[in-house]
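The protein record filed here:
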Amino acid sequence: MNLFTSTIELEIRQANRSFYDAIESLKIEQMEDMWLNSETIQCIHPGWNERIVGWHAVMKSWYAIFQNTQYIEFNVSDFSCMIEGDLAVVNCTEKIMSAAGEEISNNEILATNVFQKSSNRWWLILHHGS
């Protein structure tokens, strides 16, 4: 039995893990390196009542999260991937442990991450967690 159905799926799994590594780093530079620099990218954070659109707005949202988080760790499971040309849609479950101030929380979020291949690498173009 193959763990990965293709080299492309392995690339997408690595890109997806790199996204969660960027969140765990709490460094905006790592997060910026994950996203396609475009005004069409979108992000929907769990608990936020808005869809964030565009490079600057999305990075501003991650900056705010990083400024208010002392520690965050992701255990990602239930990975599924659909690939169509230069687009890949990942669905997964995020098991999150985080600390902000005196509060430690554990949450489970369903997420969709969409990647687009450009310049020979996979860039995040949409993250939706709910």
Remarks:
- Residues 81 and 107 are 23 Å apart (CA to CA).
- The chain has three helices and six strands.
- The longest strand covers residues 103-118.
